[in-house]
Amino acid sequence: MRQIFLLFVVCSFLISSGGAQAADDMNAVAERYAHLVLALGQHDPDYVDAFYGPAEWKTQAEKEKKSFDTIGREAAELIATLAKIPDGSRSGDEMVSLRREYLQKQLSALAARVRILKGEKLKFDDESRALYDAVAPTFSDSYFDQIIGQLEKKIPGTGPLWKRYENWRKPFVIPKEKLDAVFQAAIKECRARTLAHVALPPNESFTVEYVTNKPWGGYNWYKGNFHSVIQVNTDLPIYIDRAVDLAAHEGYPGHHVYNSLLEKNMVRDRGWVEFSVYALFSPQSLVAEGTANFGRDVAFPTRTERIKFEKEVLFPAAGIDASRADEYYAVQDLMKELDYAANEAARRLVNGEIDENAAAQWLQKYAVMEPVRAQQRVKFIKRYRSYVINYNLGEDMVRRYVEKRSGTDSEKRWSEFGKLLSSPRLPSGLQEK
Ligand SMILES: [Zn+2]
């Protein structure tokens, strides 16, 4: 009996010390992964989207300036090391299994990015699978044609639809001098709605800057210590619907909240340093962009609720006629159905089926964009390529994942959404049953 008891004690010791060893090994891989992301950032200025780990890690990367071959070899070594670490699922902590999968997929995307930067040409879908762990569905022109047909009926006038649309929506531009007031009002509402459901670090904050000459509409730069800088590009007119979109996407409960919760729950509470660095061209971006887009519908669970807020607060703050809000949003709903048109343009351009000019023309027709907006989008595609899928496919994947667990109950939706924002789950993990 005593012997059996001793055997039990020895076995449990071995299991728990094995677990501790596995955790140490995983931490070592995580730290080396963070160093590799910084090393690749030396070659690719867009790659490191955020880093708030030890400053000397960055200095070290600058000093070492590792070659593509060294970075690629080290990534392969780390993937092999990771495969030898016992699966953490025995610990019963799902987060440990997710962490392992996270590191494996982020490392393999990093290796793919190295190959791309070295000159390897990947087709659009192969690239998105390698970098973002997902492939966007393909739509034919006729799919968009039937949505365009419905829009044609709603927008008055003659001539190309993009021209009529631009004309029709002019009264819904936020005047430049009112932009900050409108945007701040949208942020305030989105923040209050988020704080009512998600526990945020008490000192979280962000600042807003207005910039020009960028290929994107808005950007969240996460600085660490629960602080973000949000930049809004004012190159082109900003329409009233963008206020809530941007406030939710960049701020609450989008990027600023996602990054703050990762810092709090992963980096500070668990000591998982891989989350102190954010590699832009990686699977994490699909979850980041998808949650940021879907966050708007979590904050405003029904369309009626959103329009009510806009009519009462944002339209008056912008000096726009609130009695036309329903008409405006009926058209915006149809425009949203054209979201995948930008993916199609990007797929064809990246695959070399069309050139930049043809891509801009195609966007004018199928995404109903005026020429200058279509050109801005082409610039974005040239720079970020298959990254474009992270927005709409990301939103759809996050929506399906969250709603499968919560149904349409808005309280449960917040809870599932909050859990997703505080976990290392990646795109293929969103598709699991
Ligand atoms: Zn974003």
Q: How many β-strand stretches?
A: 5
User: What sequence of helices (H) and strands (E) makes up the elements?
Assistant: HEHHHHHHHEEEHHEHHHHHHHHH
Strand content: 5-15%
Shape: globular
Cα-atom Rg, whole angstroms? Answer: 23 Å
Query: What gap, in angstroms, lies between the N and C termini?
Result: 44 Å
Tally of helical runs: 19
Structural category is mainly alpha
Please mark out the parts with pLDDT under 50 across 5 or more consecutive residues, or reply none: 5-15
State the helical fraction.
55-70%
Oligomeric category: single chain
Q: In what order do the strands lie side by side in the largest sheet?
A: 2-4-3
The small molecules bound here are: zinc ion
Major β-sheet annotation: 3 strands, mixed
Average the pLDDT over all residues and give the rounded result: 93
Topology of helices and strands:
Layout: H1 2-41, E1 48-51, H2 55-64, H3 68-84, H4 94-117, H5 124-132, H6 141-154, H7 161-169, H8 179-195, E2 205-211, E3 218-224, E4 227-233, H9 241-251, H10 255-270, E5 277-279, H11 284-299, H12 303-318, H13 325-336, H14 339-350, H15 356-366, H16 371-384, H17 389-406, H18 410-421, H19 427-430
Parallel strand pairs: 2-4
Antiparallel strand pairs: 1-5, 3-4
The protein binds zinc ion.
